[in-house]
Amino acid sequence: MRRALVVCLVLASRLAHADEPDDSGLYLAPHPDAAWWLSAQGNAILQYQPGFHSDYQGVHSFTSSDHLAISFVTTVFAGYAYEPTFTSVVVAGESAGGDGLSQALGIAGFTNLDVVRNPTLGPAPYIGRAYIDQIIPLSSEMVKSDRTPLHVFRTVPARRIEIHVGKLSTVDVFDTNEGATDSHLQFMNWSVDNNGAYDYAADTRGYTLGATIEFIDKLWALRFGELLMPKIANGPDYDYDVANARGENLELELHDCIAGHPGLVRVLGFLNHANMGTYADAIAAYRADIDTVPDVTLYRVKGRTTYGVGLNAEQEVITDLHVFGRLGWNSGKNESFAYTEIDNTLMIGGDLRGGRWARPGDKIGLVGVSNGLSDGHKTYLELGGSGFILGDGKLHYGRENILEAYYTARAYRGVFPAVDLQLIQNPGYNVDRGPVVVGSVRLHLEL
């Protein structure tokens, strides 16, 4: 019994750090067992969308004629862990370019997470992450840490406090999920790889400045983050007026073990403060004939808040078979600001590793997600308003439902081609448009 518990704790630890690979075939070149880390990766996605039915089209509609787009992301990671003091530094330089279908407009659960939502930024290299990771030991027991480009320690205390300070992605720390986090090896859709209703603090490229602190034990963890919001919705610049602009995040993580198979449950709460417009003000001004078209950006006030909750669960069912899901909701009264235009979401999926057909490096996945809007957000779009993602000029509302399937193969060490298919019903919550079918081919390289 004790041995079974120990085995399950080890498996749960791996599940808790699902982005930490223990497969030597992940990298083209082996990585030395050293205090330093250096690696690179590249991800290219070709997406094609055949034409679909559309009664009308607005300024932010998903294009109804057939078209294709190619995106690419290249990242170089460097890190160093000074293990006597449990201190590490991680820096990642990145270049993101190409295009998304329809310039990443018109679908709230957009089809390619790699796409930069502001194409004017171009592919010029930039620093994506640059942070210090400090561990404070709370036990003398040490456990092996599966290293990744973002977490370079070789061993860590079993019970510890871990602090990140600098430039990072909020979802490096919060709302991670083994089966639905990584657009480079798994699903591609925005509302699958992240909780669509989690309007997490981020600039246009998905990064922010701030600090997170975590208490980590074998069976549970608690984490908190204070992070910067952008100056405007989907903006590239940070708002340093922290009295009125910041994102607060709190997450509790619980491990379970069912019949020897590990699982996790994460409960998330967030509170964003920003210079936001409110849908009610924009609607009232339009109905009073003050504005010819509702425009939420005209009614921004510093310090307005959006709050929300999320539930994130994953469970190994049998060896190689893994199921997962998310629930999300936010208040939806003020404009969607940092991630996408989703106010509530439900996602359920699963994946199967290829060991069942003698391809242990391969994986197949299937997921369904349903996204919705708050009443104010829905009315705003019905009256002709636009957000930074959506705007058909009018709206016949229906939930945006998405089905996605992928197959990722390990063709060689560090070489992962994939195919992906997405079906989107009611793109942009509009029953007058769609359905949309998107086929994708992806090539991912790990060096």
Relevant terms:
447 residues; 5 helices; mainly beta; two-stranded antiparallel sheet; Porin; disordered N terminus; 16-stranded antiparallel beta barrel; 18 strands
Q: Give the helix proportion (percent range).
A: under 10%
- Total of domains: 1
Secondary-structure arrangement, i.e. CATH architecture? Beta Barrel
Q: What is the overall shape? A: globular
Give the low-pLDDT segments.
Answer: 1-22
Biggest sheet: strands side by side, in what order?
A: 1-2-3-4-7-8-9-10-11-12-13-14-15-16-17-18
Rounded to an integer in angstroms, the radius of gyration calculated over CA atoms is: 22 Å
Write a brief caption for the model.
This protein has 447 residues and is mostly beta strands. 9% of the residues lie in helices and 44% in strands.
Could you describe the 3D structure shown?
It contains five helices and 18 strands. The two termini are 41 Å apart. The strands form two sheets. Strands 1-2-3-4-7-8-9-10-11-12-13-14-15-16-17-18 form a 16-stranded antiparallel barrel. It is mainly beta and 447 residues long. Helices cover 9% and strands 44% of the residues. Strand 12 and strand 13 (321-330) form a beta hairpin. The model is unreliable at 1-22 (pLDDT under 50). It has one domain: Beta Barrel (Porin). Helix 4 (279-287) packs parallel to helix 5. It has helices at residues 2-16, 170-173, 190-193, 279-287, 375-382; strands at residues 36-49, 67-82, 87-98, 126-137, 142-144, 155-157, 160-168, 208-216, 220-227, 246-258, 261-277, 300-318, 321-330, 344-353, 363-372, 400-408, 415-425, 436-446.
